[in-house]
Specification:
Helix 1 crosses helix 5, helix 2 packs across helix 8 and helix 3 runs antiparallel to helix 4. By secondary structure, this protein is α+β, with helices and mostly antiparallel strands. The radius of gyration is 24 Å and the shape is globular. The protein is built from 15 helices and 20 strands. The structure holds adenosine-5'-triphosphate.
């Protein structure tokens, strides 16, 4: 297949606004690619390289050679060149990489050059496209989208799923199963503004669990060996000897368990989130004085040979209770009485925790999705939004990037909808950090505003949602303020415009 097809599809997807039309364009391109090249095409159309990083910086993309006349470059050739560039090392490697990039671009037409430069510079990165891409794979392969999504959550990446679907259809997708030792995308929660509304969305009886502001942990026990993964599927086992020791005590040989890690003070109240974050961050070196973490387990996905992903919530919880002692389990109350649920919520908040998660007793574990089976309720409204642009500060903040333009994800278009701006809540340290970080993400700058690639996720607190004619979604946040950055989340995991409407009533 020629790269020209991929470049053209990428442009069509960027220019069309309808979800259906985008899916159709992606599906046509994948159909043409076929099983072998599909993973490469999936990656390129998501703005990524299958090789991830190949060490090509902006400098190597500045001087573009004259274009070729005819579109002859193939996807396989581009992929092979990227692999070659990624393998360059040692003395003279910068020059050699440049040479390879120039050689590749010299064989591309003007339109293809434009696509390749934007692909290499990261400008096309589109995490929010995962949902559309899953649908496109389903359409190209003629299989149900739910099967593709399920394989995706089990595998954590769409490339191999595309190959299996295109080669062997639904049968190929059935080959993806939970493997102990390979992390799956964790199930996520929807949000409701109150306990009553959360109960309103579920059956009469539901479970209410504390929501701790810690770090998600997926614990795999394979033949007695314990491994711990974060929600971004990074392994952090080495950093957590006390957690590994606690899990080793459990009477299981093979299991996949889900829970939350948190640093607690002697009185049982949580340390600030940063303390837990520092213990689990994959990039930090050694801790000066490690604060012990406590593990609270709340789910089980696999137990000694049996997959429990499809078992109802109540059954998984019962299985968990059989193998995990109470002090390692998330406090949980099963009730049909909203007053009892509210008492549980009040207790969690009084102990310094974030709120509760109300969980359905009958839904399966919908990995990787913000399913309707879990609904979080917090006393204050927060959202994870994506920074779309940022304005230079004035006065004390001059020279610093300050006022953030905030966007929610729009699953319909695969893009983002702006909901407002804020410079509140930013400490000096955060201002310095975001100035550095957002500069690296810049794509364009006008007088006061730096427009950035929509990649950085920030957690925002706000008082409510107001109708607005100024913003494209028709709503704006009231009194938005920054709580913290969420480097553990990708833009694809940011909150959607529908979540924004569901966490708080829209005021006139
Ligand atoms: N009892 C619990 N059940 C499920 N998740 C819990 C629980 N307690 C804490 N959590 C945390 O809450 C998260 C689920 O909420 P959500 O899917 O909205 O993620 P989130 O956006 O990171 O949440 P938030 O930003 O509101 O903390 C989980 O990833 C987990 O880290």
């Amino acid at each position: 297949m020629r790269i020209n097809e991929v470049a053209r599809t990428s442009a069509v997807v960027a220019e069309t606004s309808g979800r259906k039309a985008k899916v159709a364009a992606l599906a046509a391109c994948l159909g043409e690619a076929g099983p072998r090249e599909a993973p490469i095409v999936v990656a390129y159309l998501s703005g990524e390289l299958p090789q991830r990083q190949i060490g090509v910086g902006y400098a190597a993309l500045r001087d573009v050679p004259p274009p070729a006349d005819a579109p002859e470059l193939t996807v396989a050739e581009v992929d092979a060149t990227f692999t070659e560039i990624g393998a360059v090392s040692g003395k003279g490697s910068v020059a050699r990489r440049r040479e390879l990039v120039a050689g590749l671009l010299g064989r591309a037409t003007r339109g293809e050059q434009d696509f390749l430069v934007r692909l290499l510079s990261g400008e096309l990165r589109q995490g929010a496209l995962d949902g559309l891409m899953a649908e496109a794979i389903a359409s190209a392969a003629g299989v149900p989208a739910a099967d593709v999504r399920r394989a995706f959550m089990l595998r954590g990446s769409l490339g191999p799923v595309a190959t299996a679907a295109l080669a062997d259809g639904a049968e190929g997708l059935r080959g993806f199963s939970l493997e102990v030792g390979r992390p799956v995308k964790p199930m996520l929660a929807a949000a409701a503004p109150s306990i009553d509304e959360a109960f309103g969305k579920l059956a009469a009886e539901a479970a209410v669990e504390w929501k701790l502001d810690g770090v998600r942990a997926q614990v795999h026990v394979a033949d007695g060996t314990v491994r711990v993964f974060t929600r971004t599927l990074d392994e952090i086992t080495e950093r957590l000897p006390e957690v590994v020791a606690a899990v080793r005590e459990l009477p299981v040989r093979d299991a996949v368990l889900d829970g939350e890690l948190i640093a607690l003070r002697a009185d049982g109240r949580p340390h600030p989130f940063q303390v837990t974050g520092a213990r689990t961050a994959t990039r930090t070196a050694k801790d000066a004085e490690p604060v012990p973490l406590t593990l609270y387990l709340f789910d089980v996905l696999h137990l000694d040979g049996a997959d429990l992903l499809d078992a109802p919530g109540a059954e998984r919880s019962a299985a968990l209770a059989r193998i995990v002692p109470e002090h390692l389990r998330m406090p949980r109350l099963v009730t049909g009485d909203p007053a009892a649920a509210k008492a549980m919520f009040d207790e969690a908040v009084a102990r310094g925790h974030e709120g509760v998660v109300v969980k359905s007793l009958d839904t399966p574990y919908t990995a990787g999705r913000r399913g309707a089976g879990w609904i979080k309720v917090k006393p204050r409204h927060t959202l994870d939004l994506v920074v779309l642009a940022v304005e230079w500060g004035h006065g004390r903040r001059s020279g610093l990037l300050s006022n953030l333009h905030l966007g929610a994800r729009d699953p319909e278009s695969g893009g983002f909808v702006m909901l407002g701006k804020t410079f509140k809540g930013l400490t000096d340290e955060l201002l310095a950090w975001q100035t550095r970080t957002l500069r690296d993400l810049a794509v364009r700058e006008d007088d006061w505003t730096v427009h950035v690639r929509p990649e950085l996720v920030v957690e925002i607190a706000f008082d409510g949602v107001q109708r607005s004619t100024r913003y494209p979604g028709g709503i704006a946040l009231r009194f938005a303020r920054v709580l913290r950055y969420r480097p553990d989340k990708s833009a694809a995991e940011a909150d959607t415009i529908d979540t924004v409407r569901s966490v708080a009533p829209v005021l006139d």
